[in-house]
């Protein structure tokens, strides 16, 4: 039963040793000899018709039996330049020479009189083609002119310019056709059509002629080298025989002869000039060399065109970057400046959305919120993506992809805003990133045959056969953005450097402000201590003297005079309490929390012990349905929170029975109503059946010194307890809030952060 396409091992094509096929094409003869002794070691099996001696007779002789000494010197001297016209076996030949496996490999191709005359005109023909090529502007025009020029030189039916994409699949971007020949313009070919080792040979040897796809290869004598047991490496040979898979591929296309010229730009394989003819056709070495000269000129012109376009784009982006950096220096904060310059930031890379993560943590409760500009995924999705990139082993500073779903599958459904991602990391020690997003661009790709079936198996055998159909097969490509160019990546990395510089300048300014603030705080602390002392002493004096006076003369005073003197003492005590609470509240902004794991149940027991006199006085029952958990916090400060909440719960109760309930909601437990207002692992609460609080006062009660009742009602107090409690909770990265209504009691909830950053 034939294998389905996914079962095909296309790696067979990549592993095929096409440089060690052990044969040559029959339109020439190959002789390999020792470079010093000139002894012939290897001869192609078809040597006798041209050289007059069979391979067995030639082996062991000097190479001068094939070429005279003068011709040999010329060939050796000009081997790097190109083919040399020589006489061999009494016939005119073109000779090529290269080194392989410690031998010098001589290739001889017989020339007909017509070919020799055509070669003499090749040089003038190439001059006629190259001169106008330098005047052409625009990549499309260059490629078309080059295709027309090559077809004029070699007379093939079809000449295509075939460009490789990033994934090594190819696309026909220009072509020149004889009349009546089918066009392949715009067709794409899967990467498996030109496997890895074939691309390596195209880089090494830019010219490849297959003169007759039906011809049988000629073997070497001997087939393997005595020293290695391997066939002679023919990677550099123009006559090298052809893989049977590739020959079958060409025959399936209806091709009789093939010729290709590599297009190398900056030393890398950019594409090919692929030429097809319906029948066998020889192209002399001189004509092939002329095509190579044309291809090199084309590559130079393409490089110049790209460098010109790059220079223009670079100048434009440099201007954008300068404006952006200038804009980031303005504004009250970096996030505000980034928001104000969002359009420039997106234009810098051609993105439609940008996300900037500038905090030290990805936790929503603790970290700085991401700055989202333009069309982006949600805040939570951006944070999840940042977490994924931060955890990638060996992740580079810059990551870019046109298919984000392959890198981060959870965003597969967000291709409308984030099909493509360009990311730069600002800090290797913290998850600080800049993300640029591009949406999906749906497009149709026309393939030369089904790219999902690049080969077919031979029933009962492991050998693969290339596909037989090259009819246009259209594929709808979804989920991919416009690819990020090298200029886009360079612009992003330039912004990364500029932003780091801006952050450093902000850090320097922040450091200066912090030092000034530290000095101011120290001065304020000193001033507060002085003022506190200066205010406390008179208040204590007033309390003492009123107390002494009442003890000594209270009995002799009239009732209204005694009450007035008692009021003076009460006012002094209240003023001192207000002063103590005010100083306590002001100190909270300067304290350092001592985080560690705390048994919350034991901590509440300590708080209950502190407020027990009020609980006993008010006959308040304490209800604890279950033991409280262990959590991370500053136990001293959170005990103070519990004391304030318990004291309030005991204080504001009118109807009996009096009770207060302590509890919590843990991870994964259902939370309803006000308990679900903030998402945190633990939500603690203190509940009472007291007088309740109207909704319009739910925030006002957390203001400093804010009381909703007369000063001496419900046991008095300064109105600072809830303000202090909320500030302590927020210092922990948590929140404190109330759920209540008049006559229905009150429940105070609070959460804690996840620990120090």
Automatic annotation (TrEMBL):
Q: What is its EC number?
A: 2.7.13.3
Q: Name one GO molecular function term.
A: protein kinase activator activity
List, alphabetically, the InterPro entries matched. Answer: BphY/WalK/GraS-like, GAF, GAF-like_dom_sf, HATPase_C_sf, HATPase_dom, His_kinase_dom, HisK_dim/P_dom, HisK_dim/P_sf
What range does the record give for the signal peptide? none
Keyword entries, A-Z: Chromophore, Kinase, Photoreceptor protein, Receptor, Sensory transduction, Transferase
Q: Name one GO biological process term.
A: osmosensory signaling via phosphorelay pathway
What PROSITE patterns does the record point to?
HIS_KIN, PHYTOCHROME_2
Give any Pfam family that matches.
PHY
Q: Which reaction does it catalyse?
A: ATP + protein L-histidine = ADP + protein N-phospho-L-histidine
Q: Which residues form the Phytochrome chromophore attachment site domain?
A: 138-296
Gene3D superfamilies linked to this entry:
1.10.287.130, 3.30.450.270, 3.30.450.40, Histidine kinase-like ATPase, C-terminal domain, PAS domain
**Residue span, Histidine kinase domain:** 530-756
By sequence similarity, the record places it as follows: In the N-terminal section; belongs to the phytochrome family.
Stated name of the protein:
histidine kinase
